[in-house]
């Protein structure tokens, strides 16, 4: 059996975390860890070694871009993919997020029924 793809999802909204968990938890081959803040994500990410980190952009205390910048400093995450999930999807906003190192930006509200397909596309390099 192959190793599960590890995903770390970071969002301060409990309802959104629950929807993402519902959308991804039963997908064979994926393992999901949820974090409620950038600080929590930073505390857990090195040990978890995710293949993909999905970040909310707007969070109190430490926003998604700041969390991403701090994670990019960690050598153990050199091969980790990063994507944002946000309502801020104007072309210039998407360009700014990708300039920070995100490989993809998923628009909120997202369709929970297609989220798993979107995640697999990101992991395969098809959703850039």
UniProtKB/TrEMBL annotation:
Phosphoprotein is among the record's keywords: yes
Protein name: Response regulator receiver domain-containing protein
GO process terms (BP): phosphorelay signal transduction system
Residue positions where 4-aspartylphosphate is found in the record: 56
Keyword Phosphoprotein recorded: yes
Record key words, sorted: Phosphoprotein
Domain Response regulatory: 6-123
Domain of life: Bacteria
């Amino acid at each position: 059996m192959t190793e599960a793809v590890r995903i770390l999802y970071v969002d301060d909204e409990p309802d959104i975390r629950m929807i993402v968990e519902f959308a991804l938890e039963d997908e064979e081959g994926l393992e999901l860890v949820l974090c409620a803040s950038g600080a929590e994500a930073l505390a857990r990410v090195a040990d978890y070694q995710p293949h993909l980190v999905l970040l909310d952009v707007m969070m109190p205390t430490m926003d998604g871009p700041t969390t991403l910048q701090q994670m990019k400093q960690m050598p153990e995450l050199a091969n980790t993919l990063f994507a944002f999930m946000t309502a801020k999807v104007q072309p210039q906003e998407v360009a700014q997020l990708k300039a920070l190192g995100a490989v993809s930006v998923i628009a909120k509200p997202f369709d929970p029924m297609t989220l798993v397909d979107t995640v697999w596309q990101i992991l395969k390099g098809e959703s850039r």
